[in-house]
Amino acid sequence: MGHGVFPLPSTFSFPSSHTDCIEALRVCSADPRCEALYRGLELCAADAAVSPLGEQVAAECLERRDALLGKHPALSSCKCQRGLRKEEQCLHIYWSVRLMPAEEELETSPYDDTSMETHMASLVAASSLMQLNGENQCLKAAQDCGLYEKCGSLRSEYVLACTKKVPGTNRCNQQKCHRTLRRFLERVPEEYSLPVLFCPCTSTLCGERRRKNIVPSCSYQQMEGSRHNCLQQQSICRQDGLCRSRLADFLNNCHPSPLKASGCLKDSVALCLRAYAGLIGTVMTPNYISNSSSEVSLSCNCEGSGNQWQDCLRIQKMFTLNNCLRNSISLTRSPDSPPVDITLPPAPRPSQLAQEDELLSNNLVPEHSSIVEEGSEEEEERTQTEEESDKGAHFGVIPLYSERATISSLESSGAGSAAPPITAPPVPIFLLLLSASLNCG
């Protein structure tokens, strides 16, 4: 049974405030009977992930699930937070109690975005105030990122991972590339990451930089040289708890509706943009299709779909013919927005990474020969430090861009003199516009 190109998502509605799944399981574990039911269901989910359950085993597992949720209903309505250190642990619990999920459950977001919607809406409103004055906004977004230590260092990290070749081959480590891209998008405040992804362009030079921001030669294109079938790509995604969750979030928050002014069933372009960004760094990574268009697509095709041709086209059209997604991206590049009555301070002196970004304005990805790999121990130590510091981070506090954040992967020449130190934290234009929009609201 079909509902057009985009079938309607689940009608099951969660309360406005959700229990975290890890907390829900902690409460359940205090009861030995509840704990035993969950562990048994967890084994059922693990077996189902390997091969379809037999009829009798499936019936026993579903009976166990019903008993668990009847005893502890909070597990059926719990949600997870995107980007937290225990996100995958939380998602494991979420999907374990949804044994053999129906299609509508695979299109219901496992994430609790109630606390993020207002924040994201403010960001989108601020970005729409950016004027297309001929300046390369994608270069400007990259420079602003370079002026903020965490953004600059994590951006350098994913560029390094996505351009480095696996020893003895001519290909990159796509898994590591995806992991570092997700780390960039999860740990860098949206005030910096969104302008990098959705910078407005009026020239093909800007459009090429925007398209190459995620290093598509590694993160987007198939490593084997041939393109996957979209049904196969979706199947691979749904075998992984994180990718399945990000795809469900996208299907839920970017579901189109002709009855809404925004084109989105949930009437929130902000949540759609965040859900789209959440797919980057997974098997379902989308990207811009050309240097002269803001249209996006997956890297897969529908060759060999047989009698599942329409199902395959539906997956493609979630990106290519989705008015909700198209409108969401378009709102970040509105050329007709009224000017902001705000006096901007003198432009700050750029950091070393910002200067190097300007040299990269021809959008050429650095070659492997110019990359010096950082030690894995240092990377893990930095990861742990960032996880601990994330809890108290505020986007308004912009630490100076330090020497530690500069790596040779973005240098266009050999050893050069470092840029003069910045004496005060510069405030990107995007943040000033954000502040203006919040004050007006």
Automatic annotation (TrEMBL):
<protein>
    <submittedName>
        <fullName>GDNF family receptor alpha-1</fullName>
    </submittedName>
</protein>
<dbReference type="Pfam" id="PF02351">
    <property type="entry name" value="GDNF"/>
</dbReference>
<keyword id="KW-0675">Receptor</keyword>
<dbReference type="GO" id="GO:0007399">
    <property type="term" value="P:nervous system development"/>
</dbReference>
<keyword id="KW-1003">Cell membrane</keyword>
<keyword id="KW-0449">Lipoprotein</keyword>
<dbReference type="GO" id="GO:0038023">
    <property type="term" value="F:signaling receptor activity"/>
</dbReference>
<feature type="domain" description="GDNF/GAS1">
    <location>
        <begin position="138"/>
        <end position="218"/>
    </location>
</feature>
<keyword id="KW-0325">Glycoprotein</keyword>
<comment type="similarity">
    <text>Belongs to the GDNFR family.</text>
</comment>
<dbReference type="InterPro" id="IPR016017">
    <property type="entry name" value="GDNF/GAS1"/>
</dbReference>
<feature type="region of interest" description="Disordered">
    <location>
        <begin position="371"/>
        <end position="395"/>
    </location>
</feature>
<keyword id="KW-0472">Membrane</keyword>
<keyword id="KW-0336">GPI-anchor</keyword>
<feature type="domain" description="GDNF/GAS1">
    <location>
        <begin position="230"/>
        <end position="324"/>
    </location>
</feature>
<dbReference type="InterPro" id="IPR003438">
    <property type="entry name" value="GDNF_rcpt"/>
</dbReference>
<keyword id="KW-0732">Signal</keyword>
<feature type="compositionally biased region" description="Basic and acidic residues">
    <location>
        <begin position="382"/>
        <end position="393"/>
    </location>
</feature>
<dbReference type="GO" id="GO:0043235">
    <property type="term" value="C:receptor complex"/>
</dbReference>
<dbReference type="GO" id="GO:0009897">
    <property type="term" value="C:external side of plasma membrane"/>
</dbReference>
<dbReference type="GO" id="GO:0007169">
    <property type="term" value="P:cell surface receptor protein tyrosine kinase signaling pathway"/>
</dbReference>
<feature type="domain" description="GDNF/GAS1">
    <location>
        <begin position="21"/>
        <end position="102"/>
    </location>
</feature>
<dbReference type="InterPro" id="IPR037193">
    <property type="entry name" value="GDNF_alpha"/>
</dbReference>
